[in-house]
User: Fold these one by one.
Assistant:
Number 1:
Amino acid sequence: MKYDLTAGTDMYLSDLLLEKLSFLGSRKINALITDRQVKINGVRTGSDCLLAEGDAVEVYTNAKAPSVNVIYSDENVVIADKPAHMDTMSLPALLAEEYGELYPVHRLDVNTTGIVALARNAGAKAEFEREFRAHTVRKKYIATVVGAPSRPCGIMKHWLVKDGERGLVKAYNKPVRGGLESVAAYELLSRDGELSKIALYPSTGRTHQLRVQLAATSIPILGDSKYGNFAANKKYGVNEQRLRAVSLTFTAAAGVLKSLCGKEFSVTDEEA
């Protein structure tokens, strides 16, 4: 199968492939490059070279792509259920044959599953970006956590600081230099021993936000290998974080997306 990619900025070839075709994994990606299964602007390459913005990249592979369930589409939007082990930015390449060029307008962590919206044209992309900036898209997640919140419902508020070099985010209970205010409501749904299932409603969208906030609240997500309770992960044999984006509601969609206004799109929470 051939995947057609475009470098959105100056970046290394391997970085582009890892972002756009994350389901292949770094080992397979490196093998495709060294085996000359990649073309840059029509010319085969066998090295991990630096790309310029706009470079066209063709990737040839027999590796089977994971199935992506599309739950809704029209002339402006595709709403898909992202599987685990996949960067959101990989979805356009996987869905291009049926839906053409797509633009992710928000992201989920690689190991977070669930609903993602993708724009099909520049007008839809601009309107989606406006809505997410205005926080008029209501998002709901379901998580299985170790422990239980002190109250059955409430608001988590932290200031998050990202350490880009280490790929980690730290939460603070008060404003700090470089900290981004992060807010999410929660609701306890059920409890089974030391594990609980909770619903989460973030009103901001920060890197690793829910994972970090829950860990800072002493109820880390089961299976989270970065911020979680490692003993509990081992005890329950869970190595994938139990966090799933289960719904998106467009409360104030306008312009080319006005037909979505007030609509909720949802998936089951069986993977959470």
Number 2:
Amino acid sequence: MNRFQEDTPYEFHPPQYSKLCARLIYAVSDFFFLRRKHRIAGVKIAAGGDELIRLYKQGHSLLITPNHSDHCDPHALLHLSKRLKLPLHFMAAREIFEKEKGLRAPILQKAGVFSVDREGADLKSIKQAMKLLYDATYPLVMFPEGEIYHLNEKLTPLNEGAATLALRAAKKVKKDKPETRCYIIPTALRYSYIDDISTTFPERLARLEAHILWAPQNHLDIVSRIYKFGEAVLSLKEKEFLNRTLDGSLDERLNTFREHLISNEEKKYFAEIKTGNHPTRVRMLRGKIRSIILASETPGEETMTKCRASLDKLYVAIQLYSYPGQYLREKPSMDRIAETLHKFEEDIFEDSKILGQRSVEITFCKPINLMDRLDDLQKDSKRAVSDVTTEIEAAIQAVLQ
């Protein structure tokens, strides 16, 4: 995953969709990003495409919620937007707009992309998403996982923001536009290599091993070699932050290490340990730290040093979260080996290239009619949001497995 700056003031970027500009942007996305950078040779709709188009043509409000396992995900969906003549709009992390200066932001906006501050109370982005869902002119895409964890066959816990927005919009639509329905479309994107890239694995592992001053561990099979390298890097990070290595199984060490990093920062900034999954707690901490950094035009050097050290620890915690201990051993396929190596290369070298042709299969799961959930929303809004989020997770995970 990418490391982004946390110390820049946020500026909301609204969508400025242009049908003419979008066509050009789709073409550029297809040629330079989908095919050349991400090496996608084919995009297949496995199921649900006809139903999606039918609901769109009937004028219903649509929120598409895909998993987010690959940097290519938006480009795969832009390809479908062009192919199906479906003017998708996207909510995207603010960092995407800030990562590079120049034309990036206006180009994204012309394609119907708008920004969101994931760690802040971004009311402008929320209002924009609500308006899109209420107007039902453009289907909206939100990635409720939030981060890209490079887990092509495993869904991480979803943020409840997507369900919250959609249910709120459905409530307003029912009041003002009784002929319109609001739907969430859980969507699964799954990548597979077309080329046999297994011959690249030994050389890539040798490069990673050399980075920690090891000789190539050629006496081991690929999976054992990956785990040996991973445990070595984990030990190095444990020594860096804890001054010791942890006991227990790999899964236990990963969870204990994450918890240590996160809970120590929570004590520092909140004076208490929070509940919830680790990504949710990290988002809360990042939001708190960013508010401290931006509270003054010139925060003191001591404050900045403290905040940056905290952000580094939280970044490591999220990196650790993207490595489920037994994920590769459960199914040591070429695709899982490739995505694990890709993740190591991205985390360690901050750069990684896709080395073979791939295909992506997109499944639009059974739509969730939110008009059927408004009674539940009225009785217990928190429970209604949780139930819808759980249903989205179950639908996507069933396809990925």
Number 3:
Amino acid sequence: MAAAGGATREIINPYDQSVVRTVDEGGPAAVAAARRAFDGDTWPSWTPRQRAALLRRTAELLQRDRDETARLETLDTGKTLVESGIDVDDVTNVLAYYAGQAEADAGRVVDAGDPRIRSRVVYEPVGVCALICPWNYPLLQASWKVAPALAAGNTMVVKPSEITPLTTVKMVELLAEAGAPPGVVNLVLGGGAATGAPLVESHDVCRGPSAARR
């Protein structure tokens, strides 16, 4: 989908300075979509087991498209195809690890000192996460943010580096193919001042459940 403002950027291969792809750049309007998904009925009703299944399915799709994804990582960063393939495998393991964490018992029983009282610590998602990723190891570093955020039940807006976005775009596409509901995983492309700063300044980022959900 083209950006509302019509802005684009050419992604340059660092090896030979050729244009790999032209991508659309947009502002942080995706925060509103992430907020709606977090406050809605669909995503909050997903169980930890369902979130784990989403991550495992994404890992399977990533391995299915391993060669294509490794090639994109190489075109983005200039690293060898062998190293890019290793990165894809590492990301697959990250997704599988956090799938297991999603299913782990997050509650903790606390001894209240009174047999009549049951005290349990329960963790809740923080809300909308703004995930801003650097240019080096772009796919791996994006997975370190996306996987735990999903495992914990958050929605998100992912902003990769403007110079190495291609494999993050691919991962978001695979998450959608794996069944992530609309608005749960959102992608924005652009530079830090125009796109990253408004994300972290938004009052809808990292704000917990709305009053309607309490």
